[in-house]
């Protein structure tokens, strides 16, 4: 395989990865919604769709420029009342002013650096529905859509770069796996598949894909490293019989790979069960210990009932999840991070048991032991 095709594929991977991140994250964002499905982003805009004076909309993790909000108002008011007049502010700066006649769609540019991006409504001529209703109303909101010239919301550049880099790493590993077969162009499918995963991660919950990404990267690295390790071991082997045995052991590795994939699927499935409630009694004291480290700024958890490696691993994993954009307080997400660490440790123990049993007995015994542990309900 010459390097020129490889260089072309690398360039295509980098470009496609960033495109997949840009559009995949944009499509995962809740870009079009109304008063009844606002997911808490709307304030002082009730289920009856009436916009009150001082109403606001919050948007998270948006790029400083490029996005705009399309507002479609109904324009209806009681007979004898003039059309509602609005001033729209973004991050405290007035960006639009209009009268609602119900026929036009207002495009509000979402400029600014504030986080979340706060869009505020000021009704210049509010009306009161009744003497008993103290709301100061403008008119009714029909629909609103967050979009850009690209057709999807544009997220913060840092988020796009991080996710794009993660896709590129996975794609490059796939390319090197396919290098000897001469089918490196198949690695270009990885950004496409990643885009499909991202666009279906509703409401920016793409951080839940991080464990899957970590699993795929680990498996790819393992597949790349194992032949190198086997080659070094084979060189050290002096016995001809032992050398032939190792050459015939390729099928065992394939079966082990299937067992590991199944073990990972069982452990990562529905990883957030019960959250945000805390149903497992062992999780709370460990999370409390992690929060003591966070609050004190030290690595002393003041909790030594169990070994501290789990606490440090959970602390590190939770920090990584927040870096990748996970939403929620650090304490709340620590429960999920701890489960990720436990899952990875469980998968590693399946592989470790295989090699222990293989060295003590045979490859078949190792596969049987790994399979039993992989599907053991208590271990899962």
From TrEMBL:
<dbReference type="GO" id="GO:0005886">
    <property type="term" value="C:plasma membrane"/>
</dbReference>
<dbReference type="InterPro" id="IPR050297">
    <property type="entry name" value="LipidA_mod_glycosyltrf_83"/>
</dbReference>
<keyword id="KW-0328">Glycosyltransferase</keyword>
<feature type="transmembrane region" description="Helical">
    <location>
        <begin position="303"/>
        <end position="324"/>
    </location>
</feature>
<keyword id="KW-1133">Transmembrane helix</keyword>
<feature type="transmembrane region" description="Helical">
    <location>
        <begin position="336"/>
        <end position="355"/>
    </location>
</feature>
<dbReference type="GO" id="GO:0016763">
    <property type="term" value="F:pentosyltransferase activity"/>
</dbReference>
<dbReference type="Pfam" id="PF13231">
    <property type="entry name" value="PMT_2"/>
</dbReference>
<dbReference type="InterPro" id="IPR038731">
    <property type="entry name" value="RgtA/B/C-like"/>
</dbReference>
<keyword id="KW-0812">Transmembrane</keyword>
<keyword id="KW-1003">Cell membrane</keyword>
<feature type="transmembrane region" description="Helical">
    <location>
        <begin position="250"/>
        <end position="269"/>
    </location>
</feature>
<keyword id="KW-0472">Membrane</keyword>
<feature type="domain" description="Glycosyltransferase RgtA/B/C/D-like">
    <location>
        <begin position="335"/>
        <end position="378"/>
    </location>
</feature>
<protein>
    <recommendedName>
        <fullName>Glycosyltransferase RgtA/B/C/D-like domain-containing protein</fullName>
    </recommendedName>
</protein>
<feature type="transmembrane region" description="Helical">
    <location>
        <begin position="159"/>
        <end position="178"/>
    </location>
</feature>
<dbReference type="GO" id="GO:0009103">
    <property type="term" value="P:lipopolysaccharide biosynthetic process"/>
</dbReference>
<feature type="transmembrane region" description="Helical">
    <location>
        <begin position="210"/>
        <end position="229"/>
    </location>
</feature>
<feature type="transmembrane region" description="Helical">
    <location>
        <begin position="185"/>
        <end position="204"/>
    </location>
</feature>
<feature type="transmembrane region" description="Helical">
    <location>
        <begin position="7"/>
        <end position="29"/>
    </location>
</feature>
<keyword id="KW-0808">Transferase</keyword>
């Amino acid at each position: 395989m010459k390097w020129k095709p490889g260089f072309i594929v690398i360039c295509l991977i980098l470009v496609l990865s960033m495109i997949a991140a840009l559009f995949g994250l944009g499509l995962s964002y809740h870009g079009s919604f109304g008063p009844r499905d606002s997911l808490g982003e709307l304030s002082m805009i009730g289920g009856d769709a009436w916009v009150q004076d001082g109403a606001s909309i919050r948007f998270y993790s948006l790029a400083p420029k490029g996005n705009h909000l399309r507002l479609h108002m109904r324009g209806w008011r009681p007979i004898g009342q003039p059309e509602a007049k609005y001033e729209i502010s973004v991050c405290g700066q007035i960006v639009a002013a209009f009268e609602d006649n119900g026929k036009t769609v207002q495009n509000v540019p979402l400029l600014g650096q504030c986080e979340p991006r706060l869009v505020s409504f000021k009704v210049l001529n509010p009306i009161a529905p009744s003497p008993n209703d103290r709301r100061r109303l403008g008119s009714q909101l029909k629909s609103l859509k967050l979009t850009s010239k690209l057709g999807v919301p544009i997220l913060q550049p840092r988020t796009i770069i991080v996710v794009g880099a993660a896709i590129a790493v996975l794609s490059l590993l796939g390319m090197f796996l396919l290098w000897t077969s001469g089918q490196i162009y198949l690695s270009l499918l990885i950004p496409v598949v990643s885009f499909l995963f991202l666009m279906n991660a509703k409401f920016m919950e793409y951080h839940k894909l991080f464990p899957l990404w970590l699993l795929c990267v680990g498996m790819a690295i393992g597949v790349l490293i194992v032949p190198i390790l086997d080659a070094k071991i084979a060189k050290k082997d002096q016995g001809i019989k032992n050398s032939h045995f190792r050459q015939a052991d390729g099928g065992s590795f394939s079966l082990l790979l299937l067992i590991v994939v199944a073990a990972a699927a069982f452990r990562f499935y529905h990883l957030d069960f019960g959250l945000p409630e805390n149903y497992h009694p062992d999780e709370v004291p460990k999370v409390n210990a992690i929060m003591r480290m966070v609050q004190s700024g030290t690595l002393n958890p003041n909790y030594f009932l169990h070994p501290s490696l789990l606490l440090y691993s959970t602390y590190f994993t939770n920090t990584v999840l927040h870096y990748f954009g996970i939403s929620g307080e650090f304490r709340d997400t620590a429960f999920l991070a701890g489960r990720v660490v436990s899952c990875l440790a469980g998968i590693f123990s399946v592989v470790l048991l295989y090699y222990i049993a293989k060295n003590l007995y045979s490859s078949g015994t190792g596969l049987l032991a790994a399979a039993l542990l992989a599907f053991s309900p208590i271990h899962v």
